[in-house]
Amino acid sequence: MKKKKIVLTALYISIFTTIVLTLGSYSGSPILGGFGSISRLMLIFASTSLFLYYMRMNQSPELEPAHIKNEKREKDDKKNNRPDRPSTRFVDVAGLDEVKEELVEIIDFINNPEKYHSMGAKIPKGILFYGPPGTGKTLLAQALAGETDSAFFPASGSEFVEKYVGVGAKRVRTLFEKAKKEAPSVIFIDEIDAIGAKRTTESNNEKDQTLNQLLIEMDGFSSSQTVIVIGATNRLDLLDEALLRPGRFDRHMFIGNPDVRAREEIFKVHIKNKPIDAKVDIKNLAKRTHGMSGAHLSNIANEAAILAVRNNKKNIGIDEFNQAIEKVIAGLQKKNAVILEKEKKTVSYHEAGHALVGKILNTDLVAKISIIPRGEALGYVMYAPEEDRYLITKEELYNKIKVLLGGRAAEEIIFGEVSTGAKDDLKKANNLAYQMVCEYGMSNLGNRVFEPAIIKSCYGMIDTEIKSIIDSCYDESLKQLRDQSELLHEVAQALLEKETLTGEELDTIIQAHRQKNYSIAT
Known about the structure:
single chain, 522 residues, five-stranded parallel beta sheet, 4 domains, alpha/beta
């Protein structure tokens, strides 16, 4: 503003002098008339130049609209090779309310550091996000940088891993040097377990040197440098203890799969710019997507939109969402798959066995049974849990294994032999039994937990217990289906005719069968 006043004053003086000299030449004044026409032309030129310069100053960024200033700043940032300032904010992150509340304190620290420095408080140097993939760890890091208008430096742990000694350590130094220059800044290292894994007694290899450099850099911040390091991993148990201690990663935050309320909020975020049919019930969709991550829900909303375009619809309806959920869970539908009639019959009894054992044991609600091939599966049963569960009892785990083995049991009862169709079921059943023995203390070995390091030495004992659980569950599935063999035939025949049964249609078949048997008995 001071510069503008100087230019404006010079402009006024120049114009005034030009007018006085011009009038003096016409009035015949010997003093003023002594200045020639060339001098007057120079003053006129100077006045014009000052006027144009002043007008250009009035169009400076101070008086420009905000969006024009932001566009110019973005161009300048790119020109000067400055890091991005993410546009993501906390309003773009649905669910995870508890985590966002914890991060608000760090945002306030970055925005108002004096308030905390006056109390002698130090900003946390590092935050570690851990949990299953697709739960929003990267999005949270971007939102933290966006909320504080901090420079954002994303990196992956694998970027620092090289076969040449010293390269990884040099890249770590370079990254932190850039972040310090651009402070306040956020360094985000995804899959940090690639460089932060526990060190061993082996030789000091390249990965260890890279980790050592990371530890040194995280210790090297001064109190005046506002640099936050955010790490993300799916395997917290792999990380070195020196990396996890306070002073490096001060805060560890678990980012898990969303609950039903959070899934509803996530769906709302992903459909807010999409034309959704009024009949679509978001609460029902949230209930049906139990156990899915935020990435799964985003994919479902996107797939539903693509299907609506493919079907030439103006709105995204419930049919598109149903198909999208099936696509995400079971894979791509094989429309032209040629299946032998014998195999189709086997698949029908297999899937009917799963569904019936689930109904008999009253496990998760059956939403759909299908013998239409999807992905690698020739058929599938979709379940829709009525509520989110965080604790599972020993009996419920046994029932889950029985349902998984119900398909194989149905094949043995009807055909007298089993097929390879139970490959995935067997894998899941054995994994559950392994967890019961080694992690949950739910076997004849009592309250024992077996760490990975000692499993090899106890393998025979563990294997015996796993076999005992699997065999007992399989025998129970066989017994249940033999007792309901007529109902098994009816469900399988309905599947062969329609290829797909909803949960309501299955309930109707079961209810009709029970009424028929009751009438015969009476």
